[in-house]
């Protein structure tokens, strides 16, 4: 079937709704990579076995992940007329008990994490599940969730990512229809500009402005690319976005391509994410079947398709010119800009190219659906919208946390994350991956926005927040990141290639207690030189972990060096 | 890798964007490494210089040119894994398997036991940070790993003390 009108979307929506909220009870197991790894698949198989043996009237489904990683495996129960209930830490041994309870229209209360009476999917649809199960805490009362605002993760963990009908049922592709059939490209770009959305890959460049430049660039053939290389160690929000809700990425790209005037799209994704690749491939196939990708989309005459290009583990390919080189089949070495990707001759195969991060694309359907004013109302001035962070390391409640920009580190680490794991004292967080810095606990009133993080020496980056406690050796952390950056340096420019290697040697010397105060001076000089003289972002930011630990944890260095 | 398999891989990647890395990635996934003969054959078939393919296979950390053992153990070295003890996991693996890993300057590590049963590698990050430290054996992820768990996990793959 081809979807060309609102009536067609509505028809598919009804079929999807019957899956999300069937007339019979539905058990849905959270099966993103992390859920599978902690036994979600075994839970799913066991439940299927039991349902199959007894053949009761129960629906079994797979969903993505709602982000509370510590509590996985997670299982959702939907009983008609009742709230959706999330069960946590489910084992195959619980399967029997779950199925028996669901047969009676109940849930195993002792396994329940929370209940969701209704859920706002943001893109035009609020799911009313029902009332009841009053003894189970409400979603909004669970401390991990209560300070979060789900805009990007609006569907994650609640819909089956391999069923386009379920995405359409909660308002999916309605924004694309609205944009393609009712808005001029200029108007769409205007909306994205007014929304204040900034690049979620970490640099924070205004997305609307980038689109405008790409639209105005000379060229008959243009590309849009989704950067899904997610190379920062400690960050995995993009993986979950693609695994749990791949169609929102595709819909965002479709709207962007129309606004820019691009007919070809690519998702550049790391090979280390096989499940995300598979789900994107499935999603692209389903979108093509409905005519949402391909020729003459919605009968508007606009044609656009998306392909997948896999990366192969090179951190430097987060740099735009290196990323393009990689897609073209060359080693990922950056070149000086300009020419930028949007410039004639500078993009993929020489064509003007717009490159946005996965999460930037995820915001687009929301901005079109709810309007720029609504979107700009979230977050802080100049930093609108939400951001998903992976809160990991030595924190009690590990998981994906989506909060409005401008939320303080205190709220993220202590209120949502409940502080250090095992009652240890939190010492610092590291944000922004190898390009970011370590922020000490005494600065945790810092709001998490692009500028405030820069002021304390770190960066937003793609959204990894790695918590360190009293046992973490900060000099070792600095060495860890320098070792990473030195191995990932492409070798093209001397400051990065040689400078990082010597930074590593000095850090090794310090950790071996063979360094003197003079070495600390050289370390400072050297890293400042690398920042000032490197060709691309990798080298310019790689010393940040050293500079911030030197600034905030100088005593740990001093304790290791001889006078 | 036989010629027909390679032809099938090449046919799956007919679009120019992402073509070479896509093909090399599939070879790596199927063989566990990128064999020299396959690179030579690929060079011939695509009319791409062998030096360019070699450049790609050595630049990107996903590829390895050395043959691997029956089971490939990959230890995640991401930040979350690092602060939660990935180094101890790697050291414990070395002890159990009787190998000594040498992380070379390029950060690549791939050591195979003498009986060719196990290969130990490191990865930058699996993106499974919530259950750090993590290791992967033949595609199966093991989260919240401790050195004490390793004998049991390895036992699933035929390891005996």
Could you describe the 3D structure shown?
The complex is a heterodimer of chains A (563) and B (161). With 563 residues, chain A is of the alpha/beta class. Chain A has 4 domains: 18-143, 3-Layer(aba) Sandwich (Glutaredoxin); 173-374, NADH-ubiquinone oxidoreductase 51kDa subunit (Rossmann fold); 379-469, Ubiquitin-like (UB roll), CATH 3.10.20.600; 474-558, de novo design (two linked rop proteins). Chain A has 23 helices and 19 strands. In chain A, strand 15 (386-393) and strand 16 (399-404) form a beta hairpin. With 161 residues, chain B is of the alpha+beta class. Chain B has 2 domains: 3-59; 71-155, Glutaredoxin, CATH 3.40.30. Chain B has a 5-stranded mixed sheet, covered by helices on one side. The radius of gyration of chain B is 17 Å and the shape is elongated. Chain B starts with a helix and ends in a 6-residue tail after the last helix. The model of chain B has no long low-confidence stretch (mean pLDDT 92). The interface between A and B is large, with 62 and 49 residues.
């Amino acid at each position: 079937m081809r979807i060309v009108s609102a009536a067609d979307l509505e028809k598919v929506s009804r079929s999807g709704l019957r899956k999300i909220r069937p007339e019979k009870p539905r058990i849905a197991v959270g099966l993103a990579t992390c859920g599978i790894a902690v036994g979600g698949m075994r839970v799913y198989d066991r439940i299927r076995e039991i349902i199959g043996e007894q053949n009761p009237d129960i629906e079994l489904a797979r969903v993505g992940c709602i982000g509370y990683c510590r509590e996985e495996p997670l299982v959702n129960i939907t009983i008609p007329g009742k709230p959706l209930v999330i069960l946590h830490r489910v084992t195959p041994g619980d399967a029997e008990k779950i199925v028996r309870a669901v047969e009676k229209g109940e849930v195993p209360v002792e396994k329940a994490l929370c209940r969701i009476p209704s859920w706002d999917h943001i893109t035009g649809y609020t799911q009313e599940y029902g009332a009841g199960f009053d003894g189970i805490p409400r979603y909004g009362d669970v401390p991990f969730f209560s300070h979060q605002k789900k805009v990007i993760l609006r569907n994650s963990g609640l819909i089956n990512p391999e069923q386009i009908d379920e995405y359409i049922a909660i308002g999916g592709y309605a924004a694309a229809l609205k944009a393609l059939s009712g808005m001029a490209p200029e108007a769409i770009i205007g909306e994205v500009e007014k929304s204040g959305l900034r690049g979620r890959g970490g640099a924070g460049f205004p997305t609307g402005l980038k689109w405008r430049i790409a639209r105005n660039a000379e060229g008959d053939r243009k590309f849009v690319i989704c950067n899904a290389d997610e190379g920062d160690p400690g960050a995995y929000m993009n993986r979950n976005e693609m695994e749990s809700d791949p169609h929102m990425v595709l819909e965002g790209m479709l709207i962007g391509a129309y606004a820019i005037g691009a007919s070809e799209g690519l998702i550049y994704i790391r090979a280390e994410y096989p499940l995300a690749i598979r789900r994107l491939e499935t999603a692209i196939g389903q979108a093509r079947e409905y005519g949402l990708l391909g020729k003459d989309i919605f009968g508007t005459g606009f044609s656009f398709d998306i392909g997948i290009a896999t990366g192969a583990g090179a951190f430097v390919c987060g740099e735009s010119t290196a990323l393009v080189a990689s897609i073209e089949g060359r080693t990922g070495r950056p070149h000086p800009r300009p020419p930028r990707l949007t410039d004639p001759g500078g993009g993929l195969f020489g064509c003007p190219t717009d490159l946005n991060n996965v999460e930037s694309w995820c915001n687009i359907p929301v901005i079109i659906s709810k309007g720029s004013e609504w979107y700009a109302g979230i977050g802080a001035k100049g930093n609108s919208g939400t951001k998903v962070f992976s809160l990991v390391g030595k924190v009690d409640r590990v998981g994906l946390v989506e909060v409005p920009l401008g939320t303080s580190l205190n709220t993220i680490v202590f209120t949502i994350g409940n502080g250090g794991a095992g009652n240890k004292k939190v010492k610092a967080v590291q944000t922004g991956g190898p390009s970011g810095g370590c922020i000490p606990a005494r600065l945790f009133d810092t709001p998490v926005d692009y500028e405030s993080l820069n002021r304390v020496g770190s960066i937003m980056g793609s959204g990894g927040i790695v918590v360190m406690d009293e046992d973490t050796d900060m000099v070792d952390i600095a060495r860890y990141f320098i070792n990473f950056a030195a191995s990932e340096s492409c070798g093209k420019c001397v400051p990065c290639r040689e400078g990082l290697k010597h930074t590593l040697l000095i850090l090794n010397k310090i950790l071996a207690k063979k360094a003197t105060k003079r070495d600390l001076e050289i370390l400072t000089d050297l890293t400042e030189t690398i920042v000032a003289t490197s060709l691309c972002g990798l080298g310019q930011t790689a010393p940040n972990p050293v500079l911030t630990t030197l600034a905030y944890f100088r005593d740990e260095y001093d304790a290791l060096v001889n006078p | 890798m036989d010629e027909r398999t390679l032809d099938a891989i090449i046919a799956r990647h007919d679009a120019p964007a992402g073509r070479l890395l896509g093909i090399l990635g599939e070879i790596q996934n199927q063989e566990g490494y990128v064999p020299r003969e396959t690179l030579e054959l690929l060079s011939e078939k695509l009319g791409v210089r062998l030096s360019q393919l070699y450049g790609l296979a050595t630049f990107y950390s996903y590829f390895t040119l050395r043959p691997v053992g029956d089971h490939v153990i990959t230890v995640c070295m991401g930040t979350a894994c690092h602060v939660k003890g990935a180094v101890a996991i790697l050291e414990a693996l070395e002890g159990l398997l009787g190998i000594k890993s040498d992380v070379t300057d390029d950060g690549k590590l791939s050591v195979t036991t003498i009986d060719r049963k196990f290969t130990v590698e490191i990865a930058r990050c699996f993106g499974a940070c919530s259950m750090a430290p993590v290791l992967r054996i033949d595609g199966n992820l093991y989260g919240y790993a401790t050195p004490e768990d390793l004998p049991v996990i390895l036992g699933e793959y035929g390891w005996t003390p």
